[in-house]
Sequence to fold (178 residues):
Amino acid sequence: MEGLNLAMKTTVDTGVFDGLKLSNSNICSSHLLHVDDELFIGEWSRRNIANLARILRCFYVSSGLKVNFGKSTVFGIGASDLEILNWSSPLGCKPSTLPFSYLGIPFGGNMNLKSAWRPIIDKFQSKLSLWKAKTLSFGGRITLAKAVLGNLPIYYMSIFVVPNGVIDILEKIRRKFI
Fold:
């Protein structure tokens, strides 16, 4: 993965791949790597798509690690569904639309809306379901509620501002569980 990281940095520095330049800054983001997950970010152009396909092919030839394009997706912000479909085919990826989730974090949705927090609330509710409460002692319920309340939402709350009412919903679920 370090090789892919260096390859992407080099291609951006030489102008082969155009990453996404942040406004009012010299920072250019072209990729995020986490263990075996990659997220490539760049200008929406045929040239970038073709060059990304070449970069990934060179990575495969040099390392023997092949990208599973069947599990990969292409997102185009501000692009039509037809355009995304046409431009994803050189990579062999599936076209997709926003919002999406990467490493459990939702991207592209408005996290200021309560409805965007529905997956987090559902996950919270499944961890503190009533059938689990019936099988645990009072001490066990308190321990599980503290662990879930203390860990699960904090991951999201460290990234996004929680809209009014979401914490109340989570507290209600916790109280009902205990």
